[in-house]
């Protein structure tokens, strides 16, 4: 394999494929990127076993030459080193040349690098096939689905399925759900297919895909039995599902609530932020005390002291109610709902409560209260 | 103690005093700031035993009221919490009030905070006296002295004196020296006093002072027997000396050299940066190969490969010489010298070599070569 390539385009593609590399992989070969050059261009593949990214650089774009002096072939090269070398290039182009199938020679300006490499055939064979239920969607919608629920997924590996976003499609309607056992986030949207499927895509990988499609118009997704395949621009991403059965969200979300507080999202966020200063060492727990005449956010810490703040504008009609919770959970839920005003809907002091939009019901954020004694 | 204070001025003063607080102090009381209000204003003191910072806010500035509704007194308050609470204040002023000598009440807008506090008298008595040899200096010169040598101080605590900048004054001339055993940095400057003194000021603390005096015109320094006192603006900083005897720099710095390479600083820095990509796991070791006809920077790593770069513009007249070294040490030395071109002066392959300015001799940076086999 031999080629001369534009530095900026090469670096951009390397940065995409690199997103799949992990510093903690068990298989040393996965520190490498696979490079393959054929008549369609240069293909770069990176993987950490859970996520595999393949992206391509065409030989020409808009009649402008991007890759020249080509001799087709392939190689495995350390991804981190190759990217650093390309990043530090101060010229417009660089040349890439394999010597004896074991050494990659990279040259630009007065600099020359010899990188130990291996044959492309030694790379594991990851499933990148377009198989399963095909879904087409605006890239912006996919990002919104992920942003609305990803933060509520578990970050602990004990129960892998809880680290996932549960995608469930029935009759042309898609529901995306996450839960870490203390809270739950759910968003629904219409689909362009009426086929049913269930897929548990690790939330971190879904966020990675959302980052990569930023700037794209559309994304095609193939929900297969063991993996989801995301196709956009010149890139294909394959994500392995999390193992296990996802909890039944419908059984967790209450059908109705008894107490409703309507409140300005920003005022609630600021008050919780200030008051939780005094409960930083106690999971940011704050107490919300509601009555028809006043709403107060407060916190207490035996070592440091206490804090409280009156909310000036609100709507609440019912018996007084007092609920304590992790304020960062509620803050994330309020931000994910994304409206100027939000409704907090309660069943009682120790029952999970909902943070909802005042406008539509497609998003539900559920938080479990905390005892303060 | 009672007062109403302008938020912006209070926060700025808290941020200064907070620089002395450390998360690793043994004495819990040092998590507190000492606040004292008298007819001269509000005095805020923070300390971690090694560095003590006292800064003041006047009652008025340019006829504008900064502190009002005053009742003189003092208190100890958790510095991190107090600063967070003041930082999150969205009003122009806030009120501060001590209740029963044990609770500080802070109020702004709809928010109220009760912080547990202690009596000011319980705070340790740190020596903040203006004693010893007095030196006056431009703040910019002090920062230059610190920036030129601080990075070459040791960061390991085994030999505390090596973590210090050695200030040594003789006959109106000041020399500042640091060494971590592998390299040495030294800068000289004229003093406004002919008194002699030696002071080992921990480099990290000297850097803290340099950060704090940024924006000031002048600084007065009192070099005492056990501490240095820095006086500037409305702030006094006391720094405890590092224990131990500093090595004799004059005995370490060679009197003369045999081989001289003159080279553009930026070209050397870029070449070392690129080439050291291949020796990241080997302390960034690179080899400089000099002859009258060519200069080459190279590196080698058995696992990953090798890299080399030709230097295009240089001056070198002597027998060929090959020297290997930690390129980040040389990069820091080149940057500290701060000139467009630098001279690398050698005695031989394995002898310490100097990085010097082409223009003046007040700065010397010394680096010990490394074996590559």
Structural class of chain A: alpha+beta
Number of strands of chain A: 28
Global morphology of chain A:
elongated
Query: What is the number of independent domains of chain A?
Result: 3
State the CATH superfamily name of the largest domain in chain A. Answer: DNA Polymerase III, subunit A, domain 2
Tell me the major beta sheet of chain A: 13 strands, antiparallel
Overall CATH class of the largest domain in chain A: Alpha Beta
What do we call the CATH topology of the largest domain in chain A?
A: DNA Polymerase III, Chain A, domain 2
Beta fraction of chain A: 35-45%
Radius of gyration of chain A: 25 Å
Terminal-residue CA separation of chain A: 68 Å
The appropriate CATH architecture of the largest domain in chain A is Roll
**Helicity range of chain A:** 10-25%
Largest Cβ-defined interface: A-B, 33 and 33 residues
Chain oligomer state: homodimer
The low-confidence runs of chain A, each spanning 5 or more residues with pLDDT under 50, are none
Average the pLDDT over all residues of chain A and give the rounded result.
95
Number of helices of chain A: 7
